[in-house]
What does this fold into?
Amino acid sequence: MTVLAGSVPGDLLTRVAAHFGSNTRPLGIAVSGGSDSLALLHLMADWGGAPLVCVTVDHGLRSASAGEAAHVATICAGLGVPHDILTWAGWDGQGNLPAAARRARYALMAQWASQRDLAGIVLGHTADDVAETLLMRLARRAGVDGLAAMQTRRQEGETVLHRPLLQAHRADLQQYLVLRDVPWIDDPSNTDGRYRRTQARRALDALVPVGVTAGALADAARHLRDARETLGHYAAQEAARIASIDTGDLLFDAALFAALRPDIARRLLQAGLGWITGPGYGARGPDITRMLARIAGGEGGTLAGCRITQGAGHIRLAREYAAIGDCTAVPGAVWDGRWHLDGPQSPGAHVAALGPQGRLACPNWRASGLPAHSIDASPALWQGDALLAAPLAGCPNGWQARACRTTADLKAMLLSH
It folds into this structure.
C-alpha cells in the first residue's frame, strides 16, 4: 500500500468543520468500507459537531459484500455511531450495472434519510472522483453541465447530499487512515478494466507525465462548475421574463424563447421538463438537442414524460398522460408530485389522472382553456372506475386542485444545476 504525502489531518478536519458550520441536526454518512468513505466516517466522528448515523448499501453483487457491510458495522460500533445496512436485489443483468447500482443506492439512502429524519447524507467524494468523472464525460462529448464538478451540496428530492471533501485527494485520506492505523477495503471492481471508472483511473496515471494530474482536472472541473452556475443565473433571469404557469402547465413565450442563446434555451427546456415531472433523471442531451430543433421548426412532441406543443404564441410544456396512467394517490396526498386534491371525505376513493374517457364525462372541460392533453393528465377523484370529481375539467363536486409547484421552483432548479 503506497501512500503519498498530502494534507495533514488538521486540514481535513478544517474542511469538514467549515462545510457544516453550525449545523447540529443529525447527519447520515454513506460508508462502503473503502478508504474514502472510511476516512470520512472517522473525520466526521472527530469533528463531533452533529449526531451521526452510518449507512452501508449492500448491492449483493459480490460474495464478500455482506461481510464488508458487517465490518463497517463493527467499526461504527467502536466509534459509537449507529449503523444500518440496506440491501439491493434489483439487478436483472440488463443495461449499465454501475449506473443502475448508483441509482438504486441513492434511492435507498434517500428513503432511509427520510425515515431517520436526517439533515442530509454525507458522501466521501474527492478531487480524484471529480477528475475521473471529467474524463469519463469527455469521452461522451458532454457539455458544460456534464463536465462541471459535482457540487459540495446538492438537493436530491427531499435529501441534501453533502460532499465536504471534494478538494481533498484520495492519498490525503489514505494517509489520514494510516496515521489512525485504520485498514480499508479495496473493492476489486476498482481495478476491473471492464468498468469505465477504472479505465479513467488508468488514463489519469498515463497523463501525469504531461502535467494532466487529478488535481489539474479537478481544478478545471471547478472552473466549469463556476461557468455552469453563471449560465444558471442568467437562465433564471430569462425564465422570469418569458415563463408563466397555466394551471399546472409551463408556458414559454415562443418569440422570446427563439431569441435566446442556445445554451440558455437548453437550460430552460431541461428545467421546464424537470419542473413538470419532478426530481430524477431527465432527458438525455441528444434528445434535448433534437427537441430544440423541433421547437425551432414550430413543432413539438413528447420527451421525458412531458408533451410539448406550440400555439397562440407560446411553447407549452404539459404532463404526458401516458407517463402517469398508473400513478395513484390517496385523497389529501400529493399526486404525481404536482397536485393536492382537497374535498369532503370519500372513503375508498383514490386520485388518478382524468384520462380521455374521464374527459368525455366532463362536458364543460373546454371552459378551462387548457388543451385536451393537459386535461387528460389532470388529477381526478375516482371510486373504482366511477369518476367522482375532476376540478380542472369543470366537474369539481366540492373538490379543489392545488398545484404544488411555482415559478420560484423553476428558478431554484435553474440555479441548482
About this structure: The chain has two domains: 9-221, 247-417. Residues 30 and 120 are 11 Å apart (CA to CA).
